[in-house]
User: Fold this.
Amino acid sequence: MEEKKKISVEPYRGTRDFYPEDMAVRNYLFAIMSSAVERYGYVQYDAPLLEETALYKAKSGEEIVNDQTYSFLDRGGRDVTIRPEMTPSVARMVARRRKELTFPLRWYSIPNLFRYERPQRGRVREHWQLNVDLFGVDSVGADIEIVSVAHNIMREFGAKEENFQIKVNDRRITNFLLDTYLGVDKESSYKLSKLIDRKLKMKEEDFVGQAREELGEKINLFVEFLNNADINNLPEEFAENEGVLALKKLLKDLNEIGISNISYDPIIMRGFDYYTGMVFELFDTGPENNRALFGGGRYDDLVNLFDVEKVSGVGFGMGDVTIKDYLETYDLLPKDLKSNTDLYVCVYSSEYKKEADILAHYLRGKGVNVVVDLTDRKISAQIKTADKEKIPFIVCVGEEEATKRRYKLKDLSKHEEREMDQDEIVEVIRKNKKER
Amino acid sequence: MEEKKKISVEPYRGTRDFYPEDMAVRNYLFAIMSSAVERYGYVQYDAPLLEETALYKAKSGEEIVNDQTYSFLDRGGRDVTIRPEMTPSVARMVARRRKELTFPLRWYSIPNLFRYERPQRGRVREHWQLNVDLFGVDSVGADIEIVSVAHNIMREFGAKEENFQIKVNDRRITNFLLDTYLGVDKESSYKLSKLIDRKLKMKEEDFVGQAREELGEKINLFVEFLNNADINNLPEEFAENEGVLALKKLLKDLNEIGISNISYDPIIMRGFDYYTGMVFELFDTGPENNRALFGGGRYDDLVNLFDVEKVSGVGFGMGDVTIKDYLETYDLLPKDLKSNTDLYVCVYSSEYKKEADILAHYLRGKGVNVVVDLTDRKISAQIKTADKEKIPFIVCVGEEEATKRRYKLKDLSKHEEREMDQDEIVEVIRKNKKER
Assistant:
């Protein structure tokens, strides 16, 4: 019945324990994410952690399903996968109630996701990701809103405009480039689009070499196109391309509402096969850590995988690890996340425990968060605990307090102490809460 | 590359989609749980969703690891399990920082958990569970606090004392009953303790039949003991039992702080093998649905599974499905969970979209949550959407509003409309938020 071998205390490789101080940071990140997207009227949803594997096979992009998922057979023989991303689940949920839902939908979620990766900086096996999606609006107005929401989150985190940058492209431009302008076949087109997606991670000579295999003498046109970041200076064949027209409007409108750290970049692809229109990525502009922080785009065919009428979608995902790294780099994480506990009640000796409980019971009823010490330690040790846990107020209960029902409330941040009754305690703590 | 077969829109068997209206209920449940336990100074933590299977094999109780877990080999050949419960993870986390942590710890978490079960009412494969634990206090004071916290959550949900009941036992009493009072061997003792745990789900004759196989003629003593619910009326051999003494103090102290819907019941066991002292369950007292809602107990040896100095623990877990059923039964779920969105901006035609965006941008900067309509539909259809989503305020932007920068703010709950400028809109909405 019992196993005597001692077990490892480490979390499973690539996952993280969230001790209370880590959880306070995570809760801070999630609170900012939620309030930033709720400013635009987005409402929260959630999907199951497990989905049938067929859902991801359908459209996630082959690489992700084959090498990186946690897939297995359940005890009934069903092939299931721990979600590696949220978009297939949300598309399924929208399809499931296609007829009952009132469009447009503005939905968000902050799920945990799993990928089997070799753990390294910024790459973990379990991470959380804010997912923001707008369903049911085809026009570029929805793309503009989604990019604005992404921008607003960065602002709400305190990031300065010069410290991040949004790069935007449109799959319709890339498709036209490959299929029509360069005129390659479907297979080459797919290979080249994957190659563009990896461009930043490759040596230029390897990139050109691999592209030349598909393109032959057209390689120069291809490289020239990708090196041009001016949407108003494209080859004339692109003049009427829908992606180009939409991007021009997007850049103009965003500039008008004051978002200027955004530009066109033809190498922005986003990995997933399911994007059909605008795609964007948000970059850290720091010279030493020029990295993509997060991104998203338009996927008009995803809900269509299910047997329902088409619904267009546009959205993005923002991971907790990358954004936390970014905020640390720019010193934007709050230094001193206060305890949610308001008051620590110390007890001089066990005979006054009941008095302490009566006081705590009264205060809790008034909305004050109270710990009563249970340890029977010396008062100084009890006070030290309260201090270490950053609880802002302390009272000690002994014979005098039990008799007079008046208490010396210590304010640990101000090193002040003042005698008062229980209702004054409530008042002082409420006032302090408002100021925090 | 693409699969043409249409995929199912249903969630994986035994799991739930949380559409925004479901998520609002879940967020309500979690908010009450969090605030109720934070009243007692508990702080939030989290652990990874996946753990190595060895962690659960060690002490969870055989049945749970063998038949009900989602266990599989990862791509590196490690045996991993999606957590079926939180206690082993939290014990691992405490052991991992045994030396750095300042005890006592008051910790809580609201993780999702997985069990492979045949789905039925109240039994799903994925559920969420509030876990509340107090580590590092051996004395009955900690047991009393944990039971008080459980009681307080029910009160915060609005449950009346007569509609629920706490039943409490102590494993030290059961162990003494089996090992000393009845004097059976280890194997029989284990079988009988499992049998007591299943008693409520069995026919009395089956229970007695199976117990007789282990006990022979002592069966009457056993049945008699289990039928007695008066802690002051136990056989005299139990007079000095530590469990009995602790339970007497617990019942007395809880009565003194006003918790009277609690009583001793010798058949309360809680399934897990790891409990060592007090165990309790909270029951619905409704005659038609007399069911256990949740429970917990003391587990002083769990952290000891790891190679660290002993830490005592006491805690409980409360599932989301059962508590939601209970709250529905007693009509305690809030009827009308308001939208977090404050204002819906309707647009008379696309030429006024920019004006609408400027207004929305200003209001968002003042903390107002604003949706701007993107659909180009008729005004009446736009208003209908706002109404359906229970957004409390509406303004419509057209030529007059664009020129005068004054807006008719409609209050949908009061069917009122009043003209004002943007700062008055902020003021009215802030006032309304406070009143909600």
User: Anything to note?
Assistant: Chain A has a mean pLDDT of 92. Chain A touches chain B through 103 residues (CB under 8 Å).
